[in-house]
Amino acid sequence: MKDNILKITAYFEKIFFALCIFAAPLVFLTDLTQNPFNIQSLLCALGVCGLLFLWGFKIFVKREAAFSFAIADILYLSFILICALSVAVGYFRPDGGFVILSEALRRGSLLVCVCAAAYFFAKSVKPYEGQEKDSNPPYFLFLWGFLWLLYPSLRSEGSFDFYACAVLLLGFFICVKHILNGGAKEFADVFITVGGLAASYGILQNFGCELFWRLNISVDFGKRAVSTFGNPNFLSSYLLLFLPLLFCFFISAKNSLAKFYYFALSLVYAAYLALAMTRSSWAGAVLAFAVLFAFADFRKFIGGARKKIILFAFIILAVFFAWPQQNGAYSSAAAARFAQIPLPSSFKNLTLDADPSALNQSYHQRLMMWTCGMRTLKKHPLLGGGWGSFQYEYGMCQGDLIKEHPALRSFVTQANSAHNELVEVLAQSGFLGFAFYLAFYAALIILLLHNLKIFNPAQRLFYGALFAGLCGVFADNMFNITMQTLNVAFAFWFVVGLIVSSAQKYKIVRVNVFAGAALSLLLLLAGAVWVTRESRVFLSDVYFLKGSFAYASKDYDLAKLRLQHAVEISSEKSESYYLLANTLLKLDQKQEAAKVCADALKRFPFYYEFHFLSFSVSGKAESLLETLHMNPAYKPAARALAGFMAERAVMRTPENIAFLKSIYGLYQDDGYFVNYYASALDSEGDYAPAAEALRTFLKTDAFDGAASSALQKIDLKLKNGNDSVLQYALKMESYRQLLKNPAALTKSTENELTALRNRDKRDFFAGMLLAEFYFRTAQYPKARGILEDLYKFRGDDISLNFAMASLDSAVGDNDGAAVYLRKILTLDRSNALASERLKKTEQLSN
User: Other C-beta atoms within 10 Å of 207: how many?
Assistant: First the structure.
């Protein structure tokens, strides 16, 4: 009886494993949740919960528990405990509190519920023994993927998609059957095949063949196919993890069909790695194969078939480097991506003090994250900021970096990860956690080296390839975040668990029936808590999507209802709070909106958007100051603060004046801010910096009459009667007013403006005046010639782009006008005039 129960338990165990390693990486929903890939977290949670229950159930039935006692296990558990301790300490810090606990549950649950679960469950998988005749790969699992080619024509339009469910169940059955009586080799085969299926779908997306989406979602990632992982970087890391093992399976395959299978998958892997264009994964692949070649058994193994291996490597590299970019004339995707690597002209340009022209978003934005991570470590050296707290700490640190380095203002982001695994661990668990983290990997390497001495050649090749994949992914995560994502994290720690459990002893611990029942119940409860959480997050996302659709259609009452449901079900989604507060503002329900903002700020105080939204609701200047402390480059808040301080004496405290001066450098070319800034300083009798700010601005926009008028008044107070900048601005303004009078559009005016421009061809304002004269007199070719000359050295000027758009519209070139209007919106996303004109222009084009 007991044996039959355990056999049934083993079968269900493989079903739950299949949820984690097959369903979670491949299943996504296209039109139910705002994040289509939220279902994957729920599927993985169900799998983990099931495995926890079965683990406890077996302890209850057998009245015994088998625990490994490898030093790596102890170090790993110690690291988890230190992370928990870092959260507890962070909670009681003055700058911590509820948000540390909230972020630990929201972001840190991955460590325990995914990473630790994968690590310990892998230890229950039978180690690879290096049999003379290995099992065949899961051919039918890969062939199963071809059934999805029929999906676009057989999909159901109703709420239940029969064909999709039938195909998924078939694939699930094939997966379970393959791993049912298998061990590490069979599990590895499933991981490799799942990667091949996801990569194949990504390749189809790359060629415009979309099986599931009605829209091209890959556009959001620079035309890089996202496949079933939601992000090309995630899938490329997943492929990288198993790439060395795939290569070893190919060269060690005993029959032609298996060799062809692994060869075909290798081509698919190489193609997707090329089109994903994830450079850190490419670097990781180089390191992975370098580690693989370091194993003497591998070198010996390939020595006997050197010519075949060289041919194989040549074909794979040819596919990788020859793979084309998605659009335009043919060019190598890999070569194009390599060409984007910044080559700094000096060491300074590798730092945050780099010249503005040398800034590279991909690199310098990461450098900002690493800098904030190390500043967090400096504040909390022993235990860090608390596991899961990086996004909170970054939100509080980013503003200081932007004030110190104004050129970085365009790199503002909400960073939920450090993009460097080592910085991530240091910032969140301090030197103590980092020490145990490094000790764990050291123990892993020592254990592997010890096992290599007792393994047979096939085992050495298998586990050496797994370790090489780990090294590659770790290197990838010096610039990436994939070890903090669901599918890559589960696969990574599952592989770690396979290596640790490859040759270790177990200690059998006998437990009585009550202890077994208690442990079983505890494990079930732990799994149920996580499943409940993931279910609530999933359902909340369903309501959020419905609410966002209602909001977009301006049905604000329905949007309110849906979004309130979303927030009530789960408080972990910041977007639900943000859209709900905006919906309430649309309904003029400011009191309710204020409550939503207050609740959101308890959970997400690192979102500067919520602070500004709170200001929109309450009108409190403190919210503006908080917004700008976190993001001093947020123009609406800066303008509002400058206006408050210009109009309200109570706001002009020494601290606020000092703060306003500290962010002035970010807005010295913004007329709205500068005029209010100068007015605030003028009101406090601080005339010199006010006058200097106005002069600096008028050099960039001599047509701003308000700035000229303000400078005139301040110059009188300073008794400055010889202000050349002011005199020039007044002259330009007088000509501009003159051009508004049709009677002034004479040959004499043209001669004056021409003479003014000929004094200095790079005089932007003289050129704009002459171009305006020609535009008003319908001499469009002459106007275009001047504007194009100005565009060569001042192409990012918004007024110039407006002038070019107006000129194109005047000659009927609406497509050309749209180009300039779109550029204005890239320079200033909040420019309402450009947005409105673009809509009208596009309507005319259609």
Answer: 11
Supply the DSSP string of 771-784, one letter for each residue: HHHHHHTT-HHHHH
Q: Are strands 506-510 and 64-68 parallel, antiparallel or unpaired?
A: antiparallel
421 vs 484: CA distance, rounded Å = 9
* Segment 415-468, tens digit of pLDDT: 889 999 999 999 999 999 999 999 999 999 999 998 888 888 889 999 999 999
- Mean of pLDDT values over 229-245: 95
Single-letter amino acid, residue 769? L
How far is Cα 226 from Cα 241, in angstroms, rounded to an integer?
18
Q: Which two tokens stand for residue 734?
A: 């007088």
Collapsing DSSP to helix, strand or coil, 339 comes out as helix
How far, in Å, CA of 696 to CA of 711, rounded?
11
Question: 391: which 2 tokens?
Answer: 């996004």
State the average pLDDT for the chain: 89
Write out the E strands in 177-283. Answer: none
69 by DSSP, 3-state: which?
A: coil
Asked if 312 contacts 263 with a C-beta cutoff of 8 angstroms, the reply is yes
Q: How far is it, in rounded angstroms, from Cα 293 to Cα 152?
A: 44
Asked if 16 and 509 touch (Cβ cutoff 8 Å), the reply is no
pLDDT tens per residue, range 661-693 = 999 999 998 999 999 999 999 999 999 999 999
Is residue 575 classed exposed, middle or buried when 0-12, 13-18 and 19+ CB atoms within 10 A define those classes? middle
pLDDT of 23 strictly over 90: yes
Integer CA distances (angstroms), 26 to 18, 30, 268, in order: 11, 13, 16
What's the rounded Cα separation, in Å, for the pair 807 and 816?
9
Instruction: Give the CA distances from residue 639 to residues 223, 590, 664, 672, in Å, rounded to whole numbers and listed in that order.
Output: 36, 22, 11, 7
In eight-state DSSP terms, residue 21 is I
Helix (H/G/I), strand (E/B), else coil: 359: coil
Would you state the structure tokens that stand for residue 47, as one six-digit string? 């799998």
Contact between 628 and 642 (Cβ < 8 Å): no
CA distance 699 to 435: 55
Q: Which two tokens stand for residue 819?
A: 């180009």
Task: Quote the pLDDT of residue 553.
Answer: 94
Question: What are the distances in angstroms from CA 165 to CA 148, 151, 162, 195?
Answer: 11, 11, 5, 21
The two three-digit tokens of residue 149, written as one number: 């080619």
Give the sign of the dihedral formed by CA 148, CA 154, CA 156, CA 162. Answer: negative
Closest to 169 (Cα-Cα) out of 11, 10, 26: 26
799 by Cβ neighbours in 10 Å (0-12 / 13-18 / 19+) ranks as middle
Sign of dihedral through CA atoms 492, 498, 499, 501? positive
* Three-state helix/strand/coil letters over 260-313: HHHHHHHHHHHHHHHHHCCHHHHHHHHHHHHHHHHCHHHHHHHHCCHHHHHHHH
Is residue 22 within 8 Å of residue 171, measured between CB atoms?
A: yes
Of 546, 627, 628, whose CA–CA distance to 579 is shortest? 546
Closest Cα to residue 246, out of 265, 268, 273, 270? 265
pLDDT bin (cut points 50, 70, 90) of residue 53 is confident
Neighbours of 653 (CB within 10 A): 11
